[in-house]
Amino acid sequence: MASIPLFIFFLILFIMYTYIFLENKDYSFSLNNGSFIGFILFFLLYFLLIVFHELIHGLFFKVFKKDRKVKFGFKNGFAYATSPHSFYSKGKFIWICLTPFTFITLILLSAVSLGFIPVNLFVNMASLHAAACVGDFYWVFLLSRHPGNILVEDTEQGMTVYLNN
Fold it and tell me: What is the per-residue pLDDT for 163?
């Protein structure tokens, strides 16, 4: 349920960005004026964005542990990337969590700022993606509450945190 308030927060933030920096004053959202094909294309694009998001996770699993295997899949309707039985420092795991949000947001911001994509597509896609990052933000929140030197084990069910003495 946390993704709905997160979506609203980022929707307002990205609308404000387009209003202030792009001087766009006509953002609108309507399900009535769009075509069914446009609706399908939007969600196909969103699906590809989520796959790209998970590929970025996988890339950074490999950046920090070159010798470890990375697995991708879908579970309970969600795409995921995992590197089972790999151990990462707290800082590296936070990088792994936040890099997809950061990269994709910067790509979308650049695309709308340069006029490559329309403002409405940017606001909707960036807000949906940011809301979909709720799990990544949650892991970062949990890790930030662990003081000291810890190791994070990535598992197919989530993560396990160990004190590193």
Answer: 86
- Sequence letter at residue 75: K
Residue 133 burial (C-beta neighbours within 10 Å; 0-12, 13-18, 19+): buried
103-126 pLDDT, tens digit per residue, is 999 999 999 999 999 999 999 999
Both tokens assigned to 134: 């709720």
Q: Where are the domains of the chain?
A: 3-23+35-163
pTM metric for this prediction: 0.91
Are the beta carbons of 100 and 136 closer than 8 angstroms?
A: yes
- β-pairing, 159-163 vs 150-154, is antiparallel
pLDDT at 155: 83
b/e burial code for range 62-99 (CB count within 10 A of at least 16 → b):
eebbeeeebeeeeeeeebebbbeebbbebebbbbbbbb
- Residue matched to tokens 């989520």: 50
Position of tokens 């309707």? 77
